[in-house]
Amino acid sequence: MTDIKVALREYLESSQPASLEETIQGVARQESRPIAHRPSPVLVATAAAVVIMLVIGSVWLLAAGDQSPVITQPPRPSSTIPQATTTVSETVPEPVDPADADWMDAVIEVVVAQDGLVYAAAPIGIASLDGTGDWTPIGIDELPEGSPVDTWLPGRMLGIIALGPDGDLWAGGTSWSSVDDEDFGGAVITTWGGEEARALTWVAHYDCGRASCSWQVFTTDLAAGHDIGDMVVSADGTVYASAGENMLLAFDGTEWRAHRVPGLPTAFDPEGSVWPWSGSLAVDVAGVVWGGTNGEGRGLFSFDGTVFTQYTTEDGLPGDNAFQVTAAADGTIWVATDILYNDPATASREAAAGIASFDGTVWTTYTIADGLLSNDAVLTASSDGTVWAVHYEIPPYGYSHFDGTQWTPYPSEPPVGGFRATASPDGTLWTSSDQGLISFDGTTRTIHPSPFPRT
Amino acid sequence: MAVVAVDSRARESFTTFFQDVEPRLRYALIAALGHERGREATSEAMAYAWEHWDRIEHMENPAGYLYRVGHSRGRVRWRRPRFNPQPAPGFPEMEPGLPEALRGLSENQRITVFLVHAMGWTRRETADLLGISVNSVGSHLDRGLVKLRTALGVRNHD
Asked: Domain A21-449: which topology?
């Protein structure tokens, strides 16, 4: 007979308490090691803004050049799963232990322009990578940045980038400042500690003329300090962003609107968590916005500008944790489902429910039975009509490629990337990770180390 | 020696705070994130508290604040951190169906089941830590218990 109460209590009480002395001494050690001290996010952000042009340039010169390491795989057999006897170039840097990776310099976002220029973004900066492997920093001084008293809140947290219909670059983020900073604007919010702060949500268009580029910044306080989960730009130029527990922000170039996604927790009351309801938006050829949901089994939403529609397993989705969505050029919607925890010891490639495509009428599910390397994946639709799946959280790691008829798996040693995935016009897959950018052209996996200075 | 006096007073007040809050914070973060990440998040949150003690000791709800600090440290914003149900190293034996059952609960359901049902916290204490209303705690708790009992095949209210 299961005694739930006892089992749960034993589960919690089996944990080792944190050590008071280690807590105090650990902070003291950090304070006495100015070189090794890891700054708080706000210090990272503010320091980066001040010295970024002076320091990062030299770092990038060292990190980039023609030194992008290449990891090669032998040509894959035509009819069997390729066995990755991966060789590692000596130029590959020592992988960063995830425990040592700092989220402020991890490459979170990646997009690829039509000319093949790759843009990468971390919470502290944006850079572009050209075909020769050279990184170029994108100045961000014009993006809003405050000086919050609460050092848990960064002065500026960037990290969302997207391409507009003309291939122009957009960025989005949230910035905070002290409540006394009236020039900063934004909404006055009360943090969980009971203190007041100012919060500003913004999107920015990177406007390039003949001689120079500058950011046009559009701010709103509608999101009241909640992070943006993802951002897309539709063909008519409207910018959509997911924020908070249930908000879909829309900016048409003139006016901001906040649409509330039905059936989700009420936003901006204390029910809200720090996690946006959706970390993955896509806009299809008809202008319909699609949003995956961030855990909690809420399925998938679409928004046609007026009405939200929710899709769940009852409608044909393989799973209700439909966390990621991408729209193909032919109008097909592709959805990845997720597991609720990431534990390689117990999770398996069968753990997630698989991938689904939607042609507007019928959902079609794909799993390992259809050739996928794993049911747990991040997806991107390529402009050539094919689809890539990146398997980065649960072994076996690697990629799967859908040519319109069948899936071909490409097992690989980690890292394979996977925070975000996108495909360049030539079909090369690009993924972001805490190791930097990773590209895979079907044969060669290349790691492009993060251009952002490790904090 | 004024500095020593200030440090001594701060250390004394932080020690009292640590002894009171650390277990509660650890239980809540383990309920949210699992043992490994929950304990790590607790350590980071308490280190943050000591580093910023002059400000945090005057907060209305420092435990709730530190819960958010621990919960969101190291976040990659577009993915909610997921619960890892594996028990602490050396944990003798866990009910076989418990990991899967816990996995099926939402985060707030799992936390309220752990803290209120198993650990005997009041709904007010739990609400303050999570920054949600007492009514919401009750709602999450009721739904979480139903899910958990169903998943474990338990019919009695134990």
From this structure: Methylamine Dehydrogenase; Chain H (2.130.10)
* Residues contacting B73, CB < 8 A, separation 6+: B41, B44, B45, B48
Which SS3 state, helix, strand or coil, does residue A399 take? strand
Estimate the crossing angle of helix B123-130 against helix B134-152, to 10 degrees.
Answer: 100
- Candidates B20, B35, B79, B128: best to mutate against A (most CBs of A within 10 A) is B79
Whether the model clears a pTM of 0.90, i.e. scores above it, the answer is: no
Mutate to test the interface with B, among A103, A192, A431 (most CBs of B within 10 A): A192
Same domain for B114 and B79: no
CB A435 within 8 A of CB A446: no
Q: Is the pLDDT of residue A38 over 90?
A: no
Residue A397: both structure tokens together: 């790691």
Task: State yes or no: ipTM above 0.95.
Answer: no
Closest CA to A227 of A328, A123, A298: A123
* CA A199/CA A9 separation, integer angstroms: 39
A110-136 pLDDT tens trace: 999 988 999 999 888 999 999 888 899
Residue B133 exposed, middle or buried by CB count within 10 Å (0-12, 13-18, 19+): middle
Find out whether A343 and B85 touch, Cβ atoms under 8 Å.
yes
Specify whether B125 is located in the same domain as B154.
Answer: yes
Residue showing tokens 């809420």: A298
List the domain range (segments joined by +) for residue B75.
12-86
Q: What is the largest CA-CA distance in chain A?
A: 75
Query: Which residue in A15, A23, A276 is closest to B77 by CB distance?
Result: A276
